[in-house]
Amino acid sequence: MDHQVVIVNPLEVTLHHYSHALATILAGCQTDCAIRSIPEPSASGHGRLRWLGSYLWMLAGLRSAARSVVVVVWPVLGYWDVMLARLLTGRGVWLVMHDPEPMVDAVGYGRIAKRLAGLPAVDARLIVHSAVGAATVSRDTCIHQLAELPLPMNPPQASRDRPTRTVVRVVGQYKADRDIDGLRALASTQDTDWLYEIYGRGWPHIDGWNVDDAFLTEDAFDQTIRTSSVVIIPYTRFFQSGVAVRSIELGTPVVGPRDSSLIELLGPDSAWLVDGDDWLTAINAAIRADAEEIATVAGAAYRRVAVAWDKWVLLRSPVASNALH
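Below the sequence we write its predicted structure tokens.
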């Protein structure tokens, strides 16, 4: 039996939360969906070629699900996936482009791949999670079927364990876009007894911060967020933040740059958004927020996510498609 939406997740462990949050959102939209996952090489112990072969085989197997909307939640081969999915499934497939312009070398983001993906015959369909992501795709390609949708989000939980001491945390692995200078400056200007902690793989030593670069399981990740006074997003450039969404889900305030996709999550008037280098004002506002304010922010964010995905899936259901023709 065809499902209305089939979610293909080629990073079963890394994107477990993402794919299940998407399925939850779609279920709330009265949409029947299924998740089909493949463990990444680091989780399965198999090589990349076997992983790629399993992914392509899964796509080919969806050719018979002709009435399903297929959403691939990670581009294994970048923009080449657009063409491969079209070839193997026989129709256009929606591909989630988390990072349209990777900061590290990645397969499938070169000029040729982008140009071919934009050909009309390919019928490319991309999902991005921020206005800056949409602008980047539009600048670099001729792809017109482009949906700007918020990151999937689970219903907010009242499960936060507010610490007795103020704990400011960064959660997530280190990447080149992390604002090291900003973190160092933040710790040096605050003379209270706040704790500054970083949890994530690959982080270097930063003066004023306690760094734990151990791998976090899903449960440990959530518990680290729950026991934070505030989670900050110290990036110089990013298209969206899954850590910010997780924090809002779990009832922990999140702080980050105003000139980023966080404005779409928190709203343009949020006091938790940082203007320029003034991190302390936003952090203090987040720390002072009580349970009612946090619940209001989280509820509004979830409603925006649900409404956006509901509108998107309604226009792509077989019933809606038939009504338009």
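The first strand starts at residue 5 and ends at 9.
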